[in-house]
TrEMBL record:
<dbReference type="Pfam" id="PF10985">
    <property type="entry name" value="DUF2805"/>
</dbReference>
<protein>
    <recommendedName>
        <fullName>TIGR03643 family protein</fullName>
    </recommendedName>
</protein>
<dbReference type="InterPro" id="IPR019882">
    <property type="entry name" value="CHP03643"/>
</dbReference>
Length: 81
């Protein structure tokens, strides 16, 4: 993988509405692989914050998601000028 790919995976992992399954589909990494990547890449304190943030978050897993969530990002996340 290229450095840009790793940057995008980390970005997707931090996004609340991007499920792990989307990362797997796009990059072939399982949730466990993403966790290992984040552990390796982030500072220990940042990794702990990220794990706390995604633990139990329903939007990070398709199977736990509400059927009302139909997009992978918040509607205000990407603002167009």
């Amino acid at each position: 993988m290229k450095d840009d790919d790793y940057s995008r995976i980390i970005e997707m992992a931090w996004e609340d509405r991007t499920p792990f399954e989307a990362i797997h589909t796009q990059f072939g990494l399982s949730e466990a692989d993403v966790i290992q990547l984040m552990r390796r890449t982030l500072k220990p304190s940042s990794f702990k914050l990220w794990r706390k943030r995604v633990a139990g978050r329903a939007t990070k897993h398709f199977s736990l998601r509400s059927p009302n969530v139909t997009r992978g990002y918040c509607s205000t996340q990407y603002k167009h000028r």
